[in-house]
Amino acid sequence: MSGVRPAVLAGSFYPAQPNELRHELAAHLARAAGAVGAPERPPKLIVVPHAGHAYSGDVAALAYAALARWRERIRRVVLLGPNHRVALRGLAAPTVDAFETPLGRVALDAAALHALESLEQVIWTDKPHAPEHSLEVQLPFLQQVLGSGFGLVPLLVGQAGAEEVAEVLERVWGGEETLVVVSSDLSHYQSDARARVTDAVTAGRILHFATDLRGEEACGAAALNGALLVARRHGLVPRLLGLATSADVPQGEAARVVGYGAIAFDPAPGVDDDAALGRVLPALARAAIGQALNQPTPAPAGDPSALNRPGACFVTLRDAAGRLRGCIGHLEASRALGADVRANALAAAFEDPRFAPLTAAEWPGLAIEVSVLDAPERIEAADEAAALAALRPGEDGLILEWRGARATLLPQVWQDYPEPAQFMAALKRKARLPAAFWSDDLQLWRYRVRSFGEGASHPARIGTP
Q1: DSSP secondary structure of 326-351
Q2: Could you tell me the CATH number of the domain that includes residue 337?
Q3: Which parts of 69-161 fold into alpha helices (H)?
Q4: Domain stops at, among 266, 295, 323
Q5: Whether residue 282 sits in one domain with residue 200
Q6: Looking at residue 383, which CATH number applies to its domain?
Q7: From residue 346, how far is each of 109, 149, 239, 343, 447 by CA, in Å?
Q8: How confident is the prediction for the chain on average, in pLDDT?
């Protein structure tokens, strides 16, 4: 990489003079300081607006104000935003080695960018970056609160699916040293009263990790969908910091406004993400079954707060010879993950209609696996050939629904049916439909899982990079 992407919006979206810019940023941050708490750990992900600072600066500052205390810890910022002016398929990474603002240059994190080179959805071009404001307006805030000690990974997101964005983010996710910033305004050009209702609904969807946001809800929808998918996988905890519209500033007009929101996503207290779940979930399932069989079973070590958040799982049991002994679960989160694990473990052991209830004699050789499901994604297919082409062998779990019939196969079942046509036929048979059946009103969803087996410190990330 070589060259510098200059500040093209200084003097319009924010002041061009360094001292004036610092004074303006300090004022925004001071107004926000009393409105937000001080989290115990640095936020992992923030969502911030990208209008001119005079319009959205106070809202953006709600997210940025909490970062100052972590300036020695945050060493990398992954910055995603929509492209407004240049058509783009995928994600655009720049080829320059720094971005510039009136406060100085921000060096790009060459090592992190290098990690993205093998991804087909990432293209290397400066063209969409040159006129774009969604990333540039965030840089002065980052420089003000983090100083000059961080490297930048700036990515513009065009037409890209949630999984495409998520795959990129997983490559550079890192730990507490990495902050992800998603730049997005909310609704555009409605009346102030209508925008506030619309944006409140959108904020609620973001807080519940929606991955099907639309451009009319948030102009950074494509980036948000991918970021929320990863945030959910990593068990982040959302906090709504504030909502406003352009009518909240003196120069704003109530008849036609833009909505702004600030949201932070924090690591769950005391949770080492998947590693902690990998230790606790199988033990939780074993404890539930052991208690029912009057078998002494140690209580799970640790209690991740993720167990108290909504989650959906399947519990799979195998006998001493490795044969399936029971598998029961739920496709959609309707209760806390911990409760779902306990209930599904008992159902797999004693209520799976394919097997007799588990006995104490089988207890010593029993193996337990817990699969936590990501949110299902609808497959739009005109015919079966298109549906088969959309499947990712070895990665996708699949849900089928047709006029009251419903069935699913976990991604692990690809081991038995490695070809898409075989996998689909097995799913139809499970739904009590003929293997060759197809109907225009048949509906399909795919999903991915994190699989936690006993004795593993980390999960098998089925269907994730």
Answers
A1: EEEE-SS--SBHHHHHHHHHHHHHHT
A2: 3.30.700.20
A3: 110-114, 139-146
A4: 266
A5: no
A6: 3.30.1490.150
A7: 49, 52, 34, 5, 24
A8: 90
Residue matched to tokens 């399932």: 285
Residues 6+ apart with CB under 8 A from 81: 50, 132, 134, 135, 138, 156, 157, 182, 183, 184, 220, 223
Least confident stretch, 139-148, 157-166, 195-204, 294-303: 294-303
Q: Which residues, listed in sequence order, are joined to residue 310 by a DSSP beta bridge?
A: 336
Q: Pick from 59, 68, 60: which is nearest to 38 by CA?
A: 68
Instruction: Give the three-state DSSP class for 203.
Output: helix
Q: Which domain holds residue 125?
A: 4-266
Output DSSP code: residue 97. S
Ranges assigned E (strand) in 127-282: 151-157, 178-183, 188-190, 237-245, 257-266
Is residue 135 within 8 Å of 81, Cβ to Cβ? yes
Tokens of 219: 């102009």
Q: Are 106 and 139 in contact (CB under 8 A)?
A: yes
Clarify whether residues 356 and 405 are in a common domain.
no
d(CA 222, CA 215): 8
Expressed in percent and rounded to 5, the helix, strand and coil fractions of the chain are 35, 25, 40
Distance CA 26, CA 189 (A): 29
* Spatial contact of 183 and 157, defined as CB atoms under 8 Å apart: no
The pLDDT value given to residue 305:
62
Last residue of a domain, one of 266, 281, 303: 266
Burial degree of 11 (CB within 10 A; 0-12, 13-18, 19+): exposed
CB atoms within 10 A of CB 406: 13
Q: How far apart are CA 340 and CA 312, in angstroms?
A: 7
pLDDT value of position 5: 96
- Spatial CB neighbours of 209, under 8 Å, sequence gap ≥ 6: 228, 229, 231, 232, 238, 375
Phi, psi of 422 (to 5 degrees): -65, -45
Average pLDDT over residues 25-54: 88
Classify residue 77: in a domain, yes or no.
Answer: yes
Q: What is the CATH number for 235? A: 3.40.830.10
